[in-house]
Amino acid sequence: MKFGLQLPNLGPFSDIHYLMQLAQEAESAGWDGFFLWDHVAIPQRMVDSMTTLTAIAAVTNRMKLGPMVTSPSRRRPWKLARELTALDHLSKGRVILGVGLGASDHDFEHCGEVTSARIRAQRVDEALTIMNGLWQGESFSYQGDHFQLSDLQFHPTPLQKPRIPIWVAGWWDNKAPMRRAARWDGVFPLSKSGPLRPEDWQNIIAYIQSQRSSTTPLTCVHSGITANDSQTASDQVKPFAEVGVDWWLEDISLVRVGHKLGEDWVEPWDIEAIVERIQYGPPQTTT
User: Fold this and answer.
1) Helix boundaries (H) for 104-242
2) C-alpha–C-alpha distance, residues 159 and 97, integer Å
3) How far apart are the first and last CA of the chain?
4) Mean pLDDT of 181-187
5) Can you give 222-234 as a three-state secondary structure string?
6) What residue ranges do the domains of the chain occupy?
7) Distances in Å between the alpha carbon of 143 and those of 78, 146, 210?
8) Residue 150, H or E segment
9) What percent helix, strand, coil does the chain show, rounded to 5?
10) In the predicted model, what is the mean pLDDT of residues 197-217?
């Protein structure tokens, strides 16, 4: 099992220099990944996630990194494909793309974007098809309901082959995002009723595998919170590793202090506790 961090791109984490420092500390502490939220319009101080990830790539050497998650439904897929290709080259092949429909209406209705979940889902599927096509380096055309392009060829292509890995986020037990994940490289499920349990993961993996045609491994990504104690943390993650979870993303966010996405997050946050968890390092397990 690998261990990463997921941080908001807002509030105290809206300082790009501070995030660069935290990323370096995280890499020194042994974390395998460093991922940022990608919001643009929540009413809070905020930093652009892609620009910040580029800066982080320049000051780290080993950790995977990327947006976790972004919604391609509010992006131009060809622009997002270019941005991620540049980031993949800068990081020497460490980028992972986390995608979803988008969890905050602020990023859609306040910006004049389509709010319908059905339309957003269609746009995400079209965008992923386009990005994958452009990343192959051949002339590519696409005529969809929401995006169109003609005879477009991108060079350079990403360092990673056959493409930058795509992890699909979605609410379990909604089946549509799980079917979407089955078409790509990884799944990052969340639950509105509380943290997912190992038995939930057994059901998730069984369902996705029943929908999957690819023979390549599917990366299973869990979000949770572990203790600042090696043995306790190891005991917490072991049942998830045993059922097939590949990555544990430590939820270093306002979830630790009882807030939910979209609320008026009043500062100061408990930054000391968050930084302490980062510096302590990931759980140690041989499972």
Assistant:
1) 117-134, 175-182, 198-211, 230-242
2) 14
3) 7
4) 98
5) EEECCCCCHHHHH
6) 11-217
7) 14, 8, 29
8) strand 148-152
9) 40, 20, 40
10) 96
Q: What is the pLDDT of residues 109-124, one digit of tens each?
A: 767 777 788 999 999 9
- Nearby residues of 124 by Cβ (< 8 Å), 6 or more positions away: 71, 72, 73, 99, 100, 101, 180
pLDDT of residue 65: 98
Q: Can you state the angle between helices 16-29 and 271-280, rounded to 10 degrees?
A: 30
- Secondary structure (DSSP) of 8-69: -SBGGGG-HHHHHHHHHHHHHHT-SEEEE---S-SSS-B--HHHHHHHHHHH-SS-EEEESS
51: amino acid identity, one letter: T
State the CATH architecture for 11-217: Alpha-Beta Barrel (3.20)
Q: If we measure between CA atoms, which residue out of 37, 183, 153 comes closest to residue 85?
A: 153
Alpha carbons 235 and 237: distance in angstroms, whole number: 6
- Angstrom distance (rounded) from CA 177 to CA 168: 7
Q: Which of 277, 232, 230 is nearest to 257 (CA)?
A: 277
Q: Does residue 84 have a pLDDT over 80? A: yes
* Tokens coding 274: 């968050």
Cβ(8)–Cβ(15) under 8 Å? no
Residue 266's pLDDT is 59
Q: What is the rounded (10 degree) CA torsion for 123, 125, 127, 128? A: 160
